[in-house]
Amino acid sequence: MMFGMRVRGGLFAALVMFAVPVAATLAAVAVSAPAAAQNVNAITVEGNRRVEVETIRSYFHAGPGGRLSQADIDDGLKALIETGLFQDVHIDQRGGRLVVVVVENPVIGRVAFEGNKKIKDEQLTAEVQSKPRGTFSRPMVQSDALRIAEIYRRSGRYDVRVNPEIIEQPNNRVDLVFEINEGVKTGVRSIEFIGNNAYSASRLRDVIKTRESNILSFLGGNDVYDPDRVEADRDLLRRFYLKNGYADVQVVAALTEYDPEKKGFLVTFKIEEGQQYRVASVNYTSSIATLNPNSLSSFSRVSVGSLYNAEALEKSVEEMQIEASRRGYAFAIVRPRGDRNFENHTVSITFAVDEGPRTYIERINIRGNTRTRDYVIRREFDISEGDAYNRALVDRAERRLKNLDFFKTVKITTEPGSSSDRVILVVDLEEKSTGDFSVSGGYSTTDGALAEVSVSERNLLGRGLFAKASVTYGQYARGYSLSFVEPYLLDYRIALGLDLYQRQQLSNSYISYGTKTLGFSPRLGFQLREDLSLQLRYSIYQQEITLPSTLANCNNNPGNGLLAFNPTPAFAFANGFPAGGSATVGGQTATDSSGIGLWCFSDGEASLPVRKELAGGRTLTSALGYSLNYNTLDNNKNPTDGLLIDFKQDFAGVGGDVSYIKTAIDAKYYTPLVADIVGVIHAQGGVLNKMGSNELRMLDHFQMGPNLVRGFAPNGIGPRDINPYGTMDALGGTKYWGVSAELQMPFWFLPKEVGLKGAIYADAGGLYDYQGPTSWAATGEVNTPGCVKPTQNPPSPGTCLGLQFDDSKVVRTSVGVGLIWQSPFGPLRFDYAIPLTKGQFDRVQEFRFGGGTTF
After folding, report:
1. What is the DSSP annotation of 435-455?
2. Beta-strand relationship, 514-529 and 532-546
3. Phi, psi of 559 (to 5 degrees)
4. What pLDDT, on the 0 to 100 scale, is given for residue 663?
5. What is the pTM of this model?
6. What's the 3-state SS for 129-160?
7. What is the dihedral of CA 233, 236, 238, 244, to 10 degrees?
8. What's phi and psi for 676, nearest 5 deg?
9. Of 147, 170, 556, 656, which one's alpha carbon is 20 to 30 angstroms from that of 407?
C-alpha cells in the first residue's frame, strides 16, 4: 500500500504541522500553560474559520468554582484533536490569558476514483468515509484507502494498490482522488487435504464452496480466494463428517499460502477424522413431571443401528422442542447427550427434556431491509413479541429467511431486554438483487433447437411475491407462460400459484401430428415437513390436433379423384385388386392408373385415433389433482445421497369433454459407494383408468421412450398402429413401469471443477394396454362421406379399415453409457444406449443428447 500526496501552495505547511506528534503539543502546553487556573470565558480562540468560538470553548470543562485546572486544559486539548476538525491545535499564554490556536482541516470538494474497472464508483463511494463537503482527515483517508484495497481483495485481487492524492483548491478546499491499480485476479491454484482417510480429496472438494482455478473459472467466482469462504468451508467439512458418523472429527486448520510462481493461493485443510460411530441406543428423559418424554419419540430422526448423524440429531431436537411448546411447555429445552463407546465405536444418545429459564421476547428488531417489507420477514417467525423465547424456533426462522433467497446474509442475535427475563431479537439482513432476465438456448434430439426469453422477480414489490413471464420458440416446440405465486395466502403458510400457458408441439420425425394447448392452472402448496410437501391443483386446458391434409383424407369412394396414389402391386394383390388396371367393387369400377385410391391408408393415412381426434375438433379437459413430494437429497442440482419420491394423481371429468383417473409415481435413490462413485436406483410406474362412460382418448395415454428405457426413440415403445401404408403412430398405453440402475463417477484425470462425470447404466421397462378408440362409425372426417369398419373383403365403397395395432408385452431392456456435464452453459447429457430386447415395431435411437443454458 502506498500513500502519495500532490500538495499545492500553503497546504504543504499545514500538513507538516499536522504531522507533529500530539505528545510534543502536550509538552509545549505543559511549558506555556499558566500554573494558575483560568476561567473558561478567559480563553481566546485564533485561526478558526468555520468552527464557532463557543464550539471550541465547549470542549474545555471547568472544575469546581468554574476554574480550569491543568488537567481540564489537557482534556480539552485532547478532545479538540479527536474531533478530526483540525490539523493542529496548541495553547499559548499571552498576557495572563489562554489562547487556543487552531489550524482547521480543509473541506473536501469532491471524492473521485480513477483506474477502477471491476468495481463501480457507486459501490466505492458507499464504502469510504471521506465525503464531499466533509472535513478532510489524513487518518480517515488512510483508512479509506485500506478499505478500498480490502474490497478488491474480497473479489480476489490481492495485487491491488490504492494511492490517495490530494489536490488543493481555493478557500481551504481540496479534491480527494483515489488512484487504483486493480492488479490481476488472484485465484486458488490448489486445494489439498491432510488426514483424510475415509473420503478422497475429490469427494471433499465437492463439499466445500471454494474451487480451484481452471480454464472455465471466468464464468464463475468461487475460485477467487476469500478468507471468509475458506473459514466457512471448515465448518462445511466438519458438518459433512458429523453427518456421516464421525463424531470426533476436527478440522484443525485451513492453511493458506500465496505462491508467487503460480500467482495464486494454495489452500490446505488439516483434518483429524477419528472413528465412525453407529447409534447403539436412543433414550428419553424428562425433568418435567407432567411431560412423558417417550411421547416425543415419534419426532426423533435418529434410529438404533444407523450411522451417527449430527444433522438428524439437530432436526430431532428442533422438532421435539417445538412439539413440547405446542403442548404448553413453552420453556422446555431438549438437550441431546451422547455417550461414546470407543471400543465398539458406538454412541448412546439420550434426549433430556428440562425446564428452561422463563424468558420472553420483548421486541423483534429488523435491520438492513431497505426494500423487503417488515411483514415479509416477520411471517417467517413462528413466535412474536410477548411469546416465550424458544431457540429452536429462532433457528428455524433464520433458516427460512435464508431459504427465501432474498438476502446475501441473515443473522439473528439476542440483546438484553428491559428486565432480566426479557430479550430482544435482532435480525440483521443484507439484501440482494432478486430479479432475473435470462435468454436460454438448447438443443435436444426430441425438441430440436430451442430458445427461451424469460423475466422473473422473486420478491415482487418487496412483498415476497414471485412472478415470471417466458416465451419459447423452437423447431418443434413453441409457446408462452405466465406464472404468479403468493407464498402466504391470507397470512397462512399456504402457497397459491397461478399458471397460464400456451404450448404448440409441431409434427416431427417421431409423431405425425401436432398439438395446440391453451391452459390455466391454479394450485395450492403445503409444506407438511421440511422433507414432505403437498400440492393441490386444478387444471383446465383446451387441446386440438393439427394434421397435414394428406394424412387425413381417408376416402374409399371410387368416384373421388382427389387422390393421386396407386396401390403397390403387393398391396393390391393382397386385397383382391389386380396390380394396375381396374377392379369392380359394389358395381363401380376403380382404375389404379387413374390415380384414384380405394384404401384409407393407400396414401399414408394418420392413425384412426388421430384422425378421429382431428374430426372432433377442440377438446376441453377439466381435472383436479394432487402431488406428494418427499425429498431428502443432499443437493437438488447434483445429488449424491438421499431419496426423492414424487406421487401424483389427476382426476379428469370435473366438467369438460374427457374423464379419467391417472396415477404416477417416480422414485430416485442416491447413495455414495466407493471412490466417489454414486449409485442411482430409479423406479417409476403409472396407471390410467377409465372413469364414467367416456372412452379414453389416445392423447390421454402415457407415451414413453427414452424417459423410460434409454436407447429407444421418443414415443418409440408400446402399442403402435401397424396398418399398412399408415404413419405408424404410437398409441401409448394405460400402464407402464420402469427400473434403472446407474453408476455415476467423476473422471479422475480431470479437475473436479470442470463438472464432467461418466455414467454406466441398465434400464428395463414396459408400456402396454392401449384402451383408446379402435373403430369409427361416424361421419365428419375430411373428405369422407362415411367411415365405418368394413364387413367384407374387399371392402365396399365408403368403408375404412379398422385400427390394427401391436400391443406386445415384451419387456424392453437396454444398457448404455453416458456423459454428464454440469457446464457453464447449463446441464448437458449425452447418452449412447443399445437395446437388448424390444418389440417388433419399436423404434430405436441409440444416441441421445439434450441440454440448455441461461446467459
Report:
1. EEEEEEEEEETTTEEEEEEEE
2. antiparallel
3. -80, -5
4. 97
5. 0.66
6. CCCCCCECCHHHHHHHHHHHHHHHHHCCCCCC
7. -140
8. 65, 15
9. 147
- pLDDT averaged over the chain? 80
Separation of alpha carbons 264 and 267, rounded Å = 10
What does each C-alpha distance from 582 to 567, 590, 594, 672 come to in angstroms?
12, 6, 9, 71
**10 Å Cβ neighbour count for 645?**
16
* Whether 361 contacts 386, CB under 8 Å: yes
- Give every CB contact of residue 399 below 8 A, 6+ residues apart in sequence: none
Expressed in angstroms, the distance from the first to the final Cα of the chain is 37
Do 839 and 767 meet the contact criterion of CB atoms below 8 Å apart?
no
- Tell me the sheet residues that pair with 815: 762, 834
CA atoms within 13 A on the CB side of 636: 4
Question: Phi, psi (5° rounding) for residue 440?
Answer: -110, 145
Segment 542-554 mean pLDDT: 77
Residue 494 has pLDDT above 60, yes or no: yes
Question: How does pLDDT run across 76-96, given as a tens digit for each residue?
Answer: 888 887 777 777 787 887 766
The per-residue b/e assignment along 224-240, b for 16 or more CB within 10 angstroms, e otherwise, is: bbbeebbeebbeebbbb
d(CA 614, CA 597) in angstroms, rounded, equals: 22
- Is residue 378 packed enough to be buried (19+ CB in 10 Å), middle (13-18) or exposed (0-12)? middle
Query: How far is CA 296 from its chain centroid?
Result: 34
Question: Confidence band (pLDDT; 50, 70, 90) for 673?
Answer: confident
Asked if residues 182 and 118 have their Cβ atoms less than 8 Å apart, the reply is yes
Residue 142 has pLDDT above 60, yes or no: yes
User: Helix 70-82 to helix 22-32 angle, to the nearest 10 degrees?
Assistant: 150
Alpha-carbon distance 662 to 646, whole Å? 14
Share of the chain above pLDDT 70, in %: 81
> DSSP states of 646-691 as a string?
EEEEEEEEEEES--EEEEEEEEEEEEE-STT-EEEEEEEEEEEEE-
Binning pLDDT at 50, 70 and 90, where does residue 786 land?
Answer: very low
Three-state SS at 226: coil
Whether 552 shows a pLDDT value over 80: the answer reads no
Beta pairing class for 43-46 and 97-104: parallel
Report the amino acid identity of residue 639: P
Q: What would the grid cell of residue 658 be? A: 374427457
Q: Write the single-letter amino acid at 669.
A: Y
Residue 763's Cβ-side half-sphere holds a number of Cα atoms within 13 Å equal to 27
Q: Taking CA 647 as the corner, what is the angle to CA 645 and CA 651, rounded to the nearest 5 degrees?
A: 170
Q: Taking each helix axis from N to C terminus, what angle separates 227-243 and 310-326, rounded to the nearest 10 degrees? A: 80
Cell of 748: 479422475
Q: Give which of 713, 720, 715 is closest to 702, Cα–Cα.
A: 715
